[in-house]
Task: inverse folding
């Protein structure tokens, strides 16, 4: 990259988070720079999503079904999923905190900071604000 090239084209542009070991559960999403209240955290995520009927998932082997229950948004009798589970981005690894989450979710499933989030802080959200519980 030359000095005249726009550094905003580097892959870290707009990135606030990374995955690392979590004291809450397995791995989680952590701030690698300050995230101001209201900021959309995963801007640039243009992953393709698909709807899958629960009746199809119910016929799968238990570990595959668990993949849907653990990672998909559930609405009624359907799962909203990445078009391929190999395409899951950092946002899919947010852990839940029902009492005091620091991340919210709008109707378009865009995640935003509910308050200022500090470097090193784990990002959490209340799943029930955007997804039904798995059966």
Result:
């Amino acid at each position: 990259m030359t000095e005249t090239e726009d550094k905003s084209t580097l892959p870290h542009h707009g990135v606030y988070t990374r995955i690392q070991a979590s004291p809450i559960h397995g791995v989680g999403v952590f701030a690698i720079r300050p995230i101001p209240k209201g900021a959309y955290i995963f801007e640039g995520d243009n992953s393709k999503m698909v709807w899958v009927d629960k009746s199809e998932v119910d016929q799968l082997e238990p570990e595959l079904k668990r993949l849907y229950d653990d990672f998909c948004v559930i609405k009624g009798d359907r799962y909203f999923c990445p078009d391929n589970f190999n395409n899951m981005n950092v946002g899919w690894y947010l852990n839940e905190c029902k009492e005091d989450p620091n991340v919210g979710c709008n109707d378009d499933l865009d995640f935003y900071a509910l308050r200022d989030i500090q470097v090193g802080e784990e990002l959490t959200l209340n799943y029930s604000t955007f997804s039904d519980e798995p059966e």
